[in-house]
Amino acid sequence: METTGHFLSPTRQAEILPFETAPRSVVGYARDYPSGLSTGFHSHPRAQLLHAVSGLMRVETRGSSYLVPPTTALFLPTDVPHAVSMDGPVAMRELFLREDAARRVGDQPKVITVSGLLREIVIAVCAEPIEWETQGRGYHLAELILDEIARSTPLPMRLPLPRDARLLRVVSGLRDRPDDKRNLEQWGEVANASSRTLARLFRVETGLSFRQWRQQTRLTEALSALTMGMQPTRAAAIAGFDSVPAFGLAFRQFFGMTPGQARRLRDG
C-alpha cells in the first residue's frame, strides 16, 4: 500500500498487507472507525469494494468525489489513489480482489447498489479466513459475490471535481456552503473569471453545467446530513430548497430513496 496521507500508520499498513497479498481471489477485511477519521490519500495493489454496513463514507480520488451510504458500495480498481473520510461512526466491510477477479467486475470506479443478498455475502466473506479452502465455503462465496457485484446497478453518486484553479475556488466555496445562492456572475468575482469562462470550464472539466453540478453537490450534502440524523426541513435548506416536498421529489429522483429512508441509513 502506498500512502501520502496522515492516518495510515506503519502498524495499520502492516495489518492490511496480508489482505493485499492473499493468494485467494477475494478476501474480506472488517474494521469499525470513529467519526471524523480521514485516511489521507493512498492506494492499494489490489482492487477494492468499499462498503459500510452502517455509517457514511466519503471517498475522493484525484478527479472525483463519492458518497457511499450503507445501501451502496464503491468499487475501486487497482492502484487508484483515494482518501476515505467518515461522516459519523462507520462499520466498514471491505473486499480485496485479485487481478483476475477484478477484471470480472470492471476497470473504472463505480458506486453500486447493495442488495440484501450482496450485503450478507460481504459480511460472510469478511468472516472467512484469508486463505479459505479452495473447494469450500469461501470459494462459493467468492464466486457468488463477484457475480453479484457485476450484476449490481451503478448509481449516480460520482461528483466530478475540476482541476482549473479558478473553478476550484467556486467548487470549494460551494462544498463549504452548498446553500450559497450566488449565481455564476457573482462567483466570477471570486474566481477572477467571466461567467462565460466559468460556464465553459464547468462543461469541459466536469461534464456538467454549473446548475447541474451545484444541484448534485447540494443533494449529496443533504444526503450526508440526513444520514447524520438531520431533519428533512433542514436538509432541504442545505440543498437550496424552500419547499420540502420539492426537495423530497428531487432527492428521490436522484438517489432512488426518500429523505426519510436516507435518515435511517445511519442504523444500517
From TrEMBL:
This is HTH araC/xylS-type domain-containing protein. The lineage of its organism: Bacteria, Pseudomonadati, Pseudomonadota, Alphaproteobacteria, Hyphomicrobiales. InterPro entries: AraC-bd, Homeodomain-like_sf, HTH_AraC, RmlC-like_jellyroll, RmlC_Cupin_sf. Pfam families: AraC_binding (PF02311), HTH_18 (PF12833). Residues 168-265 form the HTH araC/xylS-type domain. SMART domains: HTH_ARAC. PANTHER family: HTH-TYPE TRANSCRIPTIONAL REGULATOR NIMR, TRANSCRIPTIONAL REGULATOR-RELATED. Transmembrane segments: none annotated. Keywords: DNA-binding, Transcription, Transcription regulation. The keyword Phosphoprotein does not apply. GO terms for molecular function: DNA-binding transcription factor activity; sequence-specific DNA binding.
